[in-house]
Amino acid sequence: MTEQKKVRVRFAPSPTGPLHMGGVRTALYNYLFAKKNNGDFLLRIEDTDQTRYVKGAEDYIRESLEWCGIIPNEGQGYGGDNGPYRQSERKDLGYYKEHAEQLVEKDLAYYAFDTPEELDKMREDLKKAGVAAPQYNAITRSRMQNSLTLPADEVKERIERGDDYVIRIKIPRNEEIKFEDIIRGWVMVHSSNLDDKVLFKSDGMPTYHLANIVDDHMMGITHVIRGEEWLPSAPLHVLLYRYLGWEEEMPRFAHLPLLLKPDGNGKLSKRDGDRLGFPVFPLEWKDPSSGEISSGYREKGYFPEAFVNILSLLGWNPGTNQEIFSMQELIESFSLERVGKAGAKYDPEKARWFNQQYLKEKSDEELARVILEREDCPEYVKKKGADYLAKVCGMMKERAVFLKDIPIDGAYLYNAPEDLDEKTLKKKWKEDTAQIMEDWLDELQQIDEADYKASNIEEKLKAFMEEKGLGFGQILPPFRLLLSGLGMGPSLFEIAELLGKEECIERMKTNLKKIASIA
Ligand code: GLU
Predict the structure, then answer these.
(1) Is 311 helix (H, G, I), strand (E, B) or coil?
(2) What's residue 156's pLDDT?
(3) Is the dihedral of CA 130, 132, 133, 138 positive or negative?
(4) Total structural domains in the chain?
(5) Which domain holds residue 293?
(6) Ligand 1 pocket: which of 9, 10, 11, 14 to mutate (most atoms <8 Å of CB)?
(7) Helix, strand, coil % over all residues of the chain, rounded to 5
(8) Which of 40, 151, 216, 456 could disulfide-pair with 221, CB 3.0 to 4.6 Å?
(9) 353-to-49, 262, 296, 422, 430 alpha-carbon distances in Å
(10) What is the rounded average pLDDT for all residues in the chain?
């Protein structure tokens, strides 16, 4: 019986800027797959393209993953026996050069000395001859400056002399390259559609393709789970596994569907920033060169559990009606077979709904604790303390979407309203309302301070309505308006109890006067 290899997957971002929410989804699916299969989840930093390196991006990536609870058990910043986990450091150890040269020796790759001008000229000539997408490939390579066309001693001399060169893969001329993608099934590409990609440059840097394959192999990766944008590169990667003699141990591929804009019109990209009215980054990001700030889900007030839940369903379908999943439930239910091919549309409204569901489930005390810890917690909230805030949360959480809404939407539970909602005033304040409210005020005053509780106030109100022959519509909206300045909100009796007798009386008197003065 063959022994099943331990599942090992990796998230391999390039530190070229903040992690996009699509990147977090890729990390999440890798993590879920690893945990589900008792495997390892690695973080590898692919920083071979030094020209695109952005300071702070690597820390941002780790902070984002940790905020989401997607914690690698091996990799850059997390230790392990397969390091280093940063490609720039692996390059210094010679890993990539060694393999690139091996390929040249086996006649599966070659040195190319063409200058940028020579490459441009080749492309222009081909365009003139009617080739739509000119490539350095099995046909054109025979006309260029490389170790296949130049005499061996000249090649040697040029390298020794320090001429700039690259190592290109020798793509076979007429071959069908195929592999089975877990999500997409069989993918087949004819080699005539591939070009002789650069694998290694004379500055000692490998390109993404070579470094990615060498590292996946050396790190024992069993499954490559990544975004659809890498699908066109996969045939080249399959070929590299074969050329390097690692075909037997080649990981299985799963290319995730794209994340689409809410209207389904194209990929949700980093550049969308806040343009569409919602963040595309997990955490706020300040661009180190322009200073520009892009908002993050964390700072907007999303719970990390909600954010993870949202991402989990953008591509994966549990096959049931369940929508709310904890990380543990996701681990238990996740499978790559249930990830679809079609792009997943991001729905910002639904995202808000998810956050609301998580908010509702939290205890009042926990909500209060977190609000008090937030930087944007208003002074008036801090002053009244945690117990009062917990009560406010209990009343407001059914309607709030974000934690930070609670102290703002519930500001009248702290401070008397300065303005009265005009619409309610116009619609609900009738000729006899002022008198009704005056009478109701007298009733309230008769309640003992110690008995000033929601249930007693409600009872009193019902008795008062009966006695006066009034309907709810004649008393509740104006009463709410006097206490909160608003037309809507949580239970009025609870509001009254929380504010306390003295404050209620005070607000009613002040606002009755205000209304009388504008009438
Ligand atoms: N460094 C690549 C990226 O930034 C990794 C792609 C892959 O997972 O192979 O997305």
Answers:
(1) helix
(2) 96
(3) negative
(4) 4
(5) 8-89+258-348
(6) 14
(7) 50, 10, 40
(8) 216
(9) 39, 15, 17, 29, 37
(10) 96
